[in-house]
Amino acid sequence: MTPTAVPSAVPAAPPHGLSRAQLHELYYFMRLTRSLEERLTNLYRQTKVIGGLFRSLGQEADSVGSAYALDRAKGDFLSPLIRNMGSMLVQGATPLEILRQYMAKADSPTRGRELNIHYGDLVRGFIGQISHLGDMVPVMAGVALSFKMRKQPRVALVYVGDGAMSTGTFHEGINFAAVQRLPMVIVCENNGYAFSTPMHKQTAVAQLVDKAAAYGIPGVRADGNDVLAVYGATKPAVEHARQGGGCTLIELVTYRRKGHAEHDNQSYVPKEELAAWERKDPIDACVRRFTGAGWATAAELAAIDDRILKQLDEAVALCEDEPMPEALGALDGVLADPARAELEWYRRIDG
Amino acid sequence: MAEVTYLEAIRQGLQEEMRRDENVFILGEDVGAYGGAFKVTDGFLAEFGERRVIDTPISEAAIVGAAAGAAHMGLRPVAEMQFIDFISCAYDMLTNYVATARYRAGLPTPMVVRGPSGGYVRGGPFHSQNPEAAFLHTPGLKIVCPATARDAKGLIKSAIRDDDPVLYFEHKYLYRRIKEELPEGEEILTPIGKARLAREGKDLTIISWSAMVYKALEAAERLEKEDGLSVEVLDLRTLLPMDDEAIIASVRKTNRVLIAHEDTRTGGVAGEITARINDQAFEWLDAPVKRVAAHDVPLPYAPTLEDFVLPQTDDLVLAARWLAAY
Questions:
Q1: Rounded to whole angstroms, how far apart are CA atoms A313 and A304?
Q2: Nearest-angstrom CA–CA distance, B151 and B311
Q3: What is the pLDDT of residue A1?
Q4: Does the structure show a pLDDT above 90 at A11?
Q5: CA A157 → CA A69, A70, A95, A233, B107, distances in Å?
Q6: Does the ipTM surpass 0.90?
Q7: Smallest Cα–Cα separation from A306: which of A98, A32, A122, A69?
Q8: How far apart are the first and last CA of chain A?
Q9: Taking the domains of chain A in order of start, what are their residue ranges?
Q10: Per the CB < 8 Å rule, is A333 touching B64?
Q11: Is the pTM of this model over 0.90?
């Protein structure tokens, strides 16, 4: 057969063996993350979100692309940090659950005990973080240890930020995982700031990935705003771990375009820095690339957007007026036995 | 029947549970090749292999955190703190992560953190601590402090089988000093949350636990011989959840209470017990509840200093006499 020029109507195959449908799914999860957070912002302004609201604007690609590299059918696990809602959505968390969490509803996954995205599900394979940064690294090392002990081909992925990497528990956890050659991937989401503290006040290393060498494990650095680059960096690390190769530290370079939480006006951030990163928006970049390469049409992406808005409308309508938990339930379940804590005596006084 | 030391009793309990349940495993510093700093897990590596007896880096937070993660996945880890003094390095992990896991996230976290506690061994400030009060204040944990070989075995086995995280404080002074006949082949399971009446009496109660129980018993003997006093000794065995029923029953019987513990006085467990007696049996008291505890200083090394700071049998005798005469 004589080779001929490839007709321009046939697009190049997507990278990393991803299918067209998978690319659409990546777009769906990024857009869902952003739209859900926008919906939460509205609810926050209406004081229906009870506590603080944490945005991942501009960071959707790093959460979604990395979590997408896990194999849910094989039972892989992850543990997010506060800006990794997208990773939880990939792992099967629903907008309804997250809305209920933020609004402290009785039927929220933690029944009103914990805030925001601090929740998990052992069946779907994600474990909720606590506020103490770094603590999930040893915990997920324990999850990975259970995989290794039981000879299960499963992988645990844990997220840290540029700030969390300064903690003692991060160091202890990653060192333990490295020594034990546990099937684990540590994803550092470097978004430039820990609350108001920039990275250069957090660490003296030039790149966070440089720390991998100190633990004798491979380190990989990728553009956290490019969902395909994130997936491309994470997937080999996941499979390396699954095959018994031990853990990998991945640094995803991105940027936090909102304050630490909704109350924080980011006065400490230079305006031009924000503007520069806005031009690197991961969802805009994804749309340009996917449509430019012929992997998606504008109409297909618009249909996904519509589906998301409908899904969110339904979820908000369903839970907006739900009750908060019954107060007495606060005493249940501290321990397996006894199952209920004692009611204080002054609450038992008659009259 | 075989005579078993307190230390051997712990070892037997661990061994029996590891043989019984494949999910039980041990992790800690020097627990494998060396068999533990005090040899509690001596021979375990040979019997159970590296998969279930894990030598870890010097990382108490990672030991406790990894134990929690493994426990979520259905394993039953027993984490050793080489000296219980180092449990403070895992304080965050225990109080913020482990203790809250069930309540905030419904996460099963069946795990044991055990290690040698206590003084009278010239260990100085960092190898003699009794950290129970630091954890008594944390909902979501259980705390046991065995005094006898039988309870050392029975409580480690119950702690491993318990569905909640249990801190198991074993007293290093008792390791090789206490010996007891334990029937072979008998399954010993000491219930968590139940005190033990170590000595019956009617004039006064000494409430204690761990190594201090022996000083309480010695004092009771002397008080009987020298003063004709009938002294009851209650060995709490479990500090969390506390056996209020046993405490109140004894208060109602003797109407005079001395609480003796090895930890320092201020913020110590005796304060909590006193408050409970005040709440539940105030009108049964014929005298104020009194405490005998260590002086409020870090524990010093020199024998002259350590013996002065820690409560001794003579102190218990004097305090009990004061209370009896009140």
A1: 14
A2: 23
A3: 46
A4: no
A5: 10, 8, 22, 13, 18
A6: yes
A7: A32
A8: 96
A9: 15-257+270-347
A10: no
A11: yes
CB contact under 8 A, B142 and A335: yes
Give the residue numbers in B contacting A (CB under 8 Å), as ranges: 25, 51-52, 54, 56-57, 59-75, 77, 92-93, 96-97, 100, 102-108, 139-140, 142, 162-164, 241, 279
Summarised one tens digit per residue, pLDDT across range B256-280 is 999 999 999 999 999 999 999 999 9
Q: What is the pLDDT of residue B2?
A: 85
Q: Which residue of B lies nearest to A129 if distances are taken between CA atoms?
A: B97
Q: Answer for the pair B278, B226: CB distance below 8 angstroms, yes or no.
A: no
Is the pLDDT confidence value at A148 over 70?
yes
Q: Which of B66, B104, B279 sits opposite A176 (nearest CB)?
A: B66
Q: What is the pLDDT of residue A5?
A: 52
- Chain A residues with CB-CB distance to B272 below 8 A: none
May I ask the CATH architecture of the domain A15-257+270-347?
3-Layer(aba) Sandwich (3.40)
Contact A127 B241 (CB under 8 A): no
> Which residue of chain A is at minimal alpha-carbon distance from B49?
A149
pLDDT surpassing 50 at residue B252: yes
User: Residue A13: how many CB atoms within 10 A of its CB?
Assistant: 12
Question: What are the structural domains, with CATH classification, of chain B?
Answer: 2-182 (3.40.50.970), 196-324 (3.40.50.920)
Per-residue pLDDT band at A3 (split at 50, 70, 90): low
| Shortest Cα distance, chain A CAs vs residue B66, angstroms | 4
pLDDT at A37 over 50: yes
